[in-house]
């Protein structure tokens, strides 16, 4: 008897488990379609849509959440029914049986799939061992025509009713239902369900000690169980067989069944064990992987840090290098500038030294000549040699004049170099200025037996600094006189002016110069030209001064010359444009 | 025509002598030679001076510039002046330049240069530049004097002495109480420069000094001026008569 009880318990457990899984598998299309249709009809109900889709995907938690929101928002009975149904199923799946029961209770009777609700309620009642209630629900379903409930497998309902009767000890009724259900399952060829039904039927008979009726069912169940893969079923069937043989005192066979049972149990256990081991292994592997991942992450982190460090240090190095290069170049440039300045200074110094030596020489010789001449003068005065006196006096005046010019140039040059001279460009009547300068030279040229012609345009106004213009003309006339031969001609005239410039020409019929000298004279160098001929070529200071001054006035100097024919010095000066 | 009165401010006797010599030779009238700043001021305000020649350095100090600055303060008392200097020192020049109008002459200078400098001073002072060296004008007109270049030197005529002006081509005959001479200036220029309250045109060729008019005989188209000068009055210019109160 103990064995039988045990068997029954097993069977019961098996059955309840079995029923739930069946319901899930047979979640049928009609219901799904209906839900989808409802969803389309209530498109705007976002929460319902989400709840329904979650439900169809068997995502129970989200189903609960969204259906709850929908319930709070809507008053549409149909939607409410659906939502409560969703919640009922969800709670049931989550094994919250009481909650599930409440939710199903809330579904209105008008609900299209009310029989499903009842079926579920029945299953819940069965679960809770409230067999009477379960029976009540199942019977209600049974009463429905096949059409109304065709998506519920009849055999399961019948089986469940049979189970209820079995538990309620209404053996005959149980027998009828279980038998019906087994018949149906035979027709449907649902082996799994059939085995369960056979086992239950066998148990039913066995409990009534109708061994003859029971044993064939046990055997049927056993043989069928060999065809299925479910270890659980195999185990139960085998165990039942073992118990039966034991009771029949057929111990060797019982032993065989026991052993088989053990193997199935072991298989089950093994499967479980394998599963557990696999689980552990998986966990371990996952842990290992996690570790690896951690290590890799750490490595990555380290790498990134290293890379960043490298990057930063390289950038820093680059900057350092850049600044280094910059300063180095700056230094080189400075050095170059300094070098250039030094060279320039050296050159200037050389020029200055040369200038001093030449000037001192010239000045000394001039003054010395004057001194000697004065001595002679006094001597002649004592002797009352008046004709000689006249010559000497003229000689003296020439020397003094030369020395004065040299000094004047020197002074002007110094002023120009130190930029201390007052410089103011204004409109000047060229002819008048030329007149002023030549006024001083006329007696000189007369003395030297030189012809002088002056024909400067009276309409030319130049834009120049008066004093520098005078210095330029003075020097040009000086040079012209210096390089002229006896009875030569010096002419000063203007060439027709252009838009921008006036051209003043100082022409002599003197020594002239060759091309090299001409080029050298025009060079914009501060160096003095070499002293070739002591008597004739002077310091070159005058020429330098002229060039600098012309440049400063915005003009140019041109020279046309032919050796032994004469020279034309052409001074080009900017025109004064807005004169009346 | 009178000579131009020149005040010389120069502390070196040799140089002032040379200046005096040149200027007298060219018919300039030397009203005085000041040796110091104080003398200069006294002489400047005691005499009728037309041009001042100022040496920048008096006794080693730039008192010449100080003098120019002093006379510049009184706006109507200023006369044209020329600085004499032997140095082109920029600092001195920058200071001297502030006494506008500014003209200067570098020492040593010759006769032409000093005469030129005086002419330039007058031109710049009365803001009529490029007059004395142009070929179509030889007169600068201030509000009370005509400065006329005659040969190498300048002469002056008081505008109030002019009786009338007769225009002949590019020339103008100036008729004063005592004399008659020709200057080179265009009619448009002279009309522009003369005070319209004192002079008016009576004819295409005549400009008369209103204060010299004795009688206007409209019927004969005649204006009779002081000294019995007779000037034609053309119809075109008769309007000027309206400016007078006519006795009937």
Residues in β-strands, percent of chain B = 25-35%
Q: Give the strand line-up of the largest sheet of chain A.
A: 2-4-5-7-6
Tally of contiguous helical segments of chain A: 19
H and E order of chain B: EHEHEHEHEHEEEEEEHEEEEE
Number-wise, the strands of chain A total: 7
Radius of gyration of chain B, taken over Cα atoms and rounded to an integer in Å? 21 Å
Level-2 CATH architecture of one domain in chain A: Alpha Horseshoe
Tell me the overall shape of chain A: rod-shaped
EC number (chain A): 2.7.13.3
Keywords (chain A): Kinase, Membrane, Phosphoprotein, TPR repeat, Transferase, Transmembrane, Transmembrane helix
GO molecular function (chain A): phosphorelay sensor kinase activity
Pfam family, one (chain A): HATPase_c
Q: What is the secondary structure topology, with strand pairs?
A:
The complex is a heterodimer of chains A (580) and B (248).
Chain A: H1 2-25, H2 29-41, H3 46-56, H4 60-73, H5 77-93, H6 97-106, H7 114-127, H8 131-143, H9 154-167, H10 171-188, H11 191-207, H12 211-227, H13 231-247, H14 251-382, H15 386-417, E1 425-429, H16 430-447, E2 451-455, E3 461-465, H17 466-482, E4 489-495, E5 501-508, H18 515-522, H19 541-552, E6 556-562, E7 566-574
Parallel strand pairs in A: 2-4
Antiparallel strand pairs in A: 1-3, 4-5, 5-7, 6-7
Chain B: E1 2-9, H1 13-25, E2 28-34, H2 37-46, E3 51-55, H3 63-73, E4 81-85, H4 90-97, E5 104-106, H5 111-125, E6 139-141, E7 145-150, E8 153-158, E9 162-168, E10 171-176, E11 180-184, H6 187-193, E12 199-203, E13 206-209, E14 213-217, E15 222-225, E16 229-232
Parallel strand pairs in B: 1-2, 1-3, 3-4, 4-5
Antiparallel strand pairs in B: 1-8, 6-7, 7-8, 9-10, 9-13, 10-11, 12-13, 14-15, 15-16
């Amino acid at each position: 008897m103990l064995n039988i009880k045990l068997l029954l318990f097993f069977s019961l457990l098996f059955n309840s488990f079995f029923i739930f899984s069946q319901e899930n598998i047979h979640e049928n299309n009609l219901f799904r379609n209906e839900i989808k249709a409802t969803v389309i009809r209530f498109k705007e109900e976002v929460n319902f849509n989400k709840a329904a889709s979650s439900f169809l995907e068997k995502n129970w938690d989200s189903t609960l959440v969204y259906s709850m929101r929908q319930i709070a928002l809507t008053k549409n009975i149909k939607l409410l029914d659906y939502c409560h149904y969703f919640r009922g199923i969800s709670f049931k799946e989550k094994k919250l049986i009481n909650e599930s029961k409440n939710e199903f209770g809330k579904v209105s009777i008008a609900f299209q799939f009310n029989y499903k609700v009842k079926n579920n309620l029945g299953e819940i009642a069965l679960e809770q061992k409230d067999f009477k209630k379960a029976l009540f629900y199942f019977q209600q379903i049974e009463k429905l025509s096949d059409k109304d409930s065709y998506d519920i497998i009849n055999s399961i309902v019948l089986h469940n009713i049979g189970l209820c009767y079995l538990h309620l000890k209404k053996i005959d009724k149980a027998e009828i239902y279980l038998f019906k259900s087994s018949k149906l399952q035979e027709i449907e060829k649902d082996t799994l369900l059939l085995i369960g039904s056979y086992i239950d039927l066998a148990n039913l008979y066995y409990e009534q000690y109708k061994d003859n009726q029971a044993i064939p069912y046990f055997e049927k169940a056993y043989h069928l169980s060999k065809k299925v893969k479910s270890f659980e079923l195999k185990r139960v069937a085998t165990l039942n067989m073992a118990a039966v043989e034991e009771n029949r005192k057929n111990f060797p066979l019982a032993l065989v069944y026991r052993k088989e049972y053990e193997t199935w149990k072991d298989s089950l256990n093994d499967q479980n064990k394998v599963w557990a081991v696999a689980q552990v292994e998986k966990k371990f592997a996952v842990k290992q992987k996690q570790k690896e991942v951690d290590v890799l992450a750490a490595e990555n982190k380290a790498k990134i840090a290293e890379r960043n460090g490298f990057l930063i240090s390289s950038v820093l190095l680059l900057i350092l290098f850049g600044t280094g290069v910059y300063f180095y170049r700056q230094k080189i440039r400075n050095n170059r500038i300094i070098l250039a300045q030094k060279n320039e200074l050296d050159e200037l110094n050389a020029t200055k030294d040369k200038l001093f030596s030449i000037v001192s020489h010239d000045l000394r010789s001039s003054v010395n000549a004057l001194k000697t001449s004065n001595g002679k003068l006094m001597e002649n005065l004592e002797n009352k040699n008046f004709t000689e006196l006249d010559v000497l006096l003229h000689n003296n005046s020439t020397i003094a004049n030369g020395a004065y010019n040299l000094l004047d140039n020197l002074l002007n040059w110094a002023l120009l170099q130190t930029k201390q001279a007052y410089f103011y460009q204004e409109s000047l009547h060229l002819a008048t200025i030329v007149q002023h300068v030549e006024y001083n030279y006329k007696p000189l040229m007369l003395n030297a037996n030189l012809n002088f012609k002056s024909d400067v345009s009276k309409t030319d106004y130049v834009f120049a600094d008066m004093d520098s213009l005078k210095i330029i003309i003075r020097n040009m006339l000086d040079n012209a006189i210096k390089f002229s031969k006896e009875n030569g001609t010096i002419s000063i005239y203007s060439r027709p002016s252009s838009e921008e410039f006036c051209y003043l020409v100082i022409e002599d019929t003197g020594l002239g110069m060759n091309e090299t000298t001409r080029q050298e004279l025009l060079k914009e160098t501060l160096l003095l030209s070499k002293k070739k001929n002591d008597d004739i070529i002077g310091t070159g200071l005058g020429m330098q001064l002229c060039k600098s001054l012309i440049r400063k006035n915005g003009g140019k100097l041109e020279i046309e010359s032919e050796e032994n024919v004469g020279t034309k010095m052409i001074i080009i000066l900017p025109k004064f444009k807005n004169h009346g | 025509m009178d000579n131009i009165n020149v005040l010389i401010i120069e502390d070196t006797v040799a140089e002032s002598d040379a200046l005096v010599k040149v200027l007298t030779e060219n018919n300039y009238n030397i009203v005085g030679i000041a040796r110091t700043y104080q003398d200069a001021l006294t002489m400047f305000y005691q005499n009728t001076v037309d041009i001042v020649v100022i040496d920048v350095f008096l006794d080693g100090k730039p008192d010449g510039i100080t003098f120019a600055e002093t006379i510049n303060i009184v706006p109507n008392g200023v006369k044209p002046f020329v600085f004499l200097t032997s140095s082109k020192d920029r600092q001195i020049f920058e200071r001297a330049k502030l006494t506008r109008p500014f003209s200067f002459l570098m020492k040593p200078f010759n006769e032409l240069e000093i005469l030129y400098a005086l002419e330039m001073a007058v031109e710049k002072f009365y803001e009529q530049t490029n007059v004395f060296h142009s070929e179509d004008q030889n007169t600068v007109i201030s509000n009370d004097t005509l400065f006329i270049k005659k040969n190498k030197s300048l002469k002056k005529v008081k505008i109030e002495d002019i009786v009338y002006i007769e225009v002949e081509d590019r020339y103008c005959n100036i008729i004063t109480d005592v004399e008659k001479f020709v200057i080179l200036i265009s009619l448009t220029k002279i009309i522009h420069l003369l005070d319209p309250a004192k002079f008016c045109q009576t004819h295409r060729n005549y400009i008369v000094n209103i204060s010299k008019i004795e009688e206007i005989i409209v019927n004969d188209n005649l204006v009779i001026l002081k000294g019995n000068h007779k000037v034609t009055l053309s119809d075109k210019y008769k309007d000027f008569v309206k400016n007078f109160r006519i006795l009937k």
